[in-house]
Design brief:
By secondary structure, this protein is mainly alpha-helical. It has one domain (18-136). Helix content is 87%, strand content 0%. It has six helices and no strands.
């Protein structure tokens, strides 16, 4: 039992630092994502807009998936920050691509249209899955 405790004590600072960095990247990424979209997800969600909630949920999970794979194989906090930044850029590009394909995406989400939001979530999660696999190697 003392070996297990020693291992925990030795590894916990590493775990805490890497987990903390990943959570911080997730939070910062989500905040940046919310700021760059044309609609105010949080205000819409507070008003009960399900389409906005779906869109933001897809963005958060879309950021978390690749970060999780990065965290699993990370060698440093810088590794997490770099791949977290790449993940954010890719998710923003995914949003922009759907925005080009679906006319007035932000306005339709503001109006609570579920169809465009579901398409957006699907693209975000698909891109996140591919991104996570690429990060994992």
């Amino acid at each position: 039992m003392s070996g297990v405790l020693s291992s925990l004590l030795a590894g916990f600072p590493y775990f805490a630092a890497h987990f903390g960095a990943a959570v911080a990247m997730l939070f910062v990424g989500a905040m940046i994502y919310v700021r760059i979209t044309a609609h105010d997800e949080m205000a819409l969600i507070r008003q009960g807009n399900v389409a906005a909630a779906l869109s933001l949920a897809g963005a958060i999970v879309g950021l978390a998936l690749p970060l999780a794979f990065c965290l699993a194989g990370s060698v440093s906090i810088l590794d997490i920050v770099i791949w977290g930044s790449v993940t954010l850029i890719i998710q923003i590009l995914a949003f922009r691509l759907v925005d080009l394909a679906v006319k007035n995406l932000s306005e339709r989400i503001e109006q609570g249209e579920i169809g465009p939001a579901v398409l957006l979530v699907s693209v975000k999660l698909s891109v996140a899955s591919l991104n996570a696999a690429a990060i994992a190697g």
